[in-house]
Each structure stands twice: as structure tokens, then as C-alpha cells.
Request: fold
Amino acid sequence: MTYNSLFTVLTDAALVEETLTHAIAAAEAHDAHLDVLCLGVDRSQTGYYYAGASAIVLQETIARAQEESEEVEALARKRLDVTTLRWSLDAGVSQLADLGRHVSARARFSDLVILPQPYGDGRGAELEPVTESALFEGHTPVLIAPVGAAPVPHPKRILLGWNESSEALGATRAALPLLRAAESVHVVVIDPPTHGPNRSDPGGLLSQYLARHRVKVEIDVLSKTLPRVSDVLLRHVTDMDADMVVMGAYGHSRFREAIFGGATRYMLEQAAVPVFMAH
Reply:
């Protein structure tokens, strides 16, 4: 597998430079085509307006979204025009509730989607559904660019979170081009099961699979000495000086993770390095 077709979504003028910097670096590294979707988002919930609400109010929200779309598009074109990439750009307006349809329709015909960190200060409500739409409806791996971090188109040290789930295996397969090119890949297993076929060799079958793909792999078995699995992963990112994390996304339901938290959400909130995810 190669990354020949990349895709990114821009909804906030303040995040255009940050997101495109990562997307352009990835496109240059893989000699890929970059598709850009610039969306102005109507964040109002029309279904909740009281009866008889003025049509002017509704028109104002759409007009505001159109202005945002035009601003984002202008910034994106200015940034892309100075590159030598093969790229294309679409722009439009979408209501928040209908955002997923537009994102997934394009993501499913891409090899990799590059998106900004969806959680944190100043992050719009639309960033989370954009990320989830690419993963769940688009069935495409996503690379999350952390706030303030430099692009890492050729990661040298990759932390691969492994819990024997289909999500983690899917992320591993999707990330193979990056894993093969890395200097070292650490398969991290936290509190492996004490029963089952792999209890005596946690991560062994995955390590064998990766070695056959010419991946330079090591296995790190860790104890859950911190309250959350994501805390242990983030600490190990620092310990091994990793410059990318590969992991499965949303092993539990999205509703459960939204209410109670989960490894995916906490990693996306706290990671200081790019996170490559697939579901």
C-alpha cells in the first residue's frame, strides 16, 4: 500500500496554516495528490428554533458560514499556490448535522486523511464529527496533527499501541508504509492478558507479521501504573522519544468514550506528536 491520494478538511481560518503544513509535508513525502475541502459550517441547530422564528435569523447563519468558507478557501489557495504539489480544492457550506456526509464521501476515496487536533482550546464543535466521519463512514485512516508540532513525514521512532483488537490491527496494516520506513517500531503492550493463546508471548504474532514486512520491531510490555492507558502510552512516547503514535481508534463505542472517556479521546487531547489512527 502507498499513500497516493491524501485528503484534508479545513473549517477554521485559524487552523488553515497549521493543518496544511502537515498535509503538504505528507503529500511531498509520498509524492501524493492532495484534495482539500474548505467548509463553512452552520453551527446552529435549525430543528431547535421556536415556531415562527424569523427566516432572517436562519439566513444570517448561512451567510456567516458562506463568509467563513470563502475566507478559508482564500487562505488555502494562497498557501497551496506556492507549492509544486498536485492538488485540488472544493469549497462549500454545510450544517453541522450534515457535515459527515460531505467528509465521508471524499474520505472513502483517499488513502489517508490529515486533520487538526479535534479537542482543546479554540477548537470548533465541528472538528470531532469531521474526524469521526473520516474514520467510521469513510473507513479511511486519519493522521491527527497536534497543536504547535512540526510535521513528521518520515517518522523514525514509532510507538504502536497493541491490545489485540481489530482496530489496532487495522491501524497497523494501514500504517505499514510508515512502519517499514521507520528506524524502530516499538509495539507497546500494557498489562497483557494472563489467559489466552498469546499470554506467554504478548505481541509475538504481530512482531512476526511486521518482521516479514521488513519492519524493525521491538516489543515493550508495560504495567498500567497510571490511572489511564493513554497516560502510560504518553509517558512511553516521552521515554522512547517517539515522533509518531499508531493506534486503533474507538475500541469502545463513541458514546461511551464521549461520556466516560477513553484511550482515543485522551490521546487526541494530550498527544504532542502526530497520531495515526484507524477503525
Summary: The first strand starts at residue 5 and ends at 10. The chain has ten helices and ten strands.
